[in-house]
Amino acid sequence: MESIYWPSFFFFLFSGLACAFAVAVLLSSNIVRMAFYLVLSLGATAGLMFLAGAEFVGAMQLLIYVGGTLVLLIFGVMLTSQERFVVMKTWAGDWVKAFLAGGALLFILAYAAFSIPEWRGIERAEADAVEAQPSVTPIAMGLLGARTDDPDGSGYLLPFEIVSVHLLVVLIGAAYLARAKRSRSSLEKL
Amino acid sequence: MLSIPFANLLTEPVGVAHYVTVGAILFICGALCMATKRNALGVLMGIELVLNGANLNFVAFGSRYLRDDANSLGLDGQLMALFVIVLAAAEAAVALAIALNFYNNHDSIDVDRADQLRG
Q1: What is the pLDDT of residues A57-99, one digit of tens each?
Q2: Would you call A73 and B108 a contact, using CB atoms and an 8 Å cutoff?
Q3: Which stretches of A28-91 are DSSP H helices?
Q4: Is residue B33 within 8 Å of residue B42, measured between CB atoms?
């Protein structure tokens, strides 16, 4: 009996948490609980990213997704959670159709993934031989247009600039959309 | 090699296929969330789950621990995952603003009530 390979153990721990809480998000009809389960599911996914060697992406997942985007969503929940909107049940017929379609899709995707031999994982000795490389510097250089890991690869300076301007535009647009409307009477008083 | 599938799950390293399966489960939960939830914020949460599943696939295909180096996406996978995270943040901000506007105008957050454009 071989000893347990601990990265695999933690993979199954985190993936079990991520999938269980994702299913809990789907099955829960209480919006507040859904938000909480979503936080836990995304946090467990960050653990999976750390296990795959993408520590910078995992940290950004925790900082931006769990710390930023989900807090935004929870603010939305708090602003709209009147009594009658906290629990909204889904019709039973929708559940049946959804589970039929979802189950079929999941079966096809999982079957396709495991039918490719190269995707089933590498040997244990091979995995032990992989040297851990910090990914922060190559990612930063890649975003600035200079690839240190792959001389032939293309940099990402233009997409980086586009995405930063896009984020600025989107935040201004969101602030404009969500601003408090000044009513006509208060305008007339001015 | 054991004849029983999944018998050596804990003693062997996992591969891309395991990550892709987890990503598929997250994706399907998110897609079903989008389809079945009646609360607009629940639909938003479904979108977050879908993007997260896609992100996990990008990271898995770029990882050096899961498959041979020659065919892996390398750093491109991680860079794409970062772009997805940023775009998800932008999308959540706009969608939340739209949902709040809808709530202010209709006094409801039920997506089934948003049928004005039926004509």
Answers
A1: 999 999 999 988 899 899 888 888 777 777 777 788 888 999 9
A2: no
A3: 31-51, 55-60, 70-80, 83-86
A4: yes
Q: Is the pTM here over 0.90, yes or no?
A: no
DSSP conformational letter for B20: H
Q: Sign of torsion, CA A74 A80 A86 A88? A: negative
Could you tell me which CATH number the domain at B16-112 has? 1.10.287.3510
Architecture of domain A1-87 in this structure: Up-down Bundle (1.20)
| Phi, psi torsion values for B39, nearest 5 degrees | -80, 130
- Please name the residues between 98 and 117 in chain A that touch chain B, using a CB distance below 8 Å: 98-99, 101-102, 105-106, 109-110, 113-114, 116
Instruction: Report A:118-147 residues touching B (Cβ under 8 A).
Output: 118-124, 127, 130, 133, 135, 138-139, 142-143, 147
- Domain spans, chain A: 1-87, 90-132, 134-190
| B111, B40 Cβ separation under 8 angstroms | yes
B83 near B32, Cβ under 8 Å? no
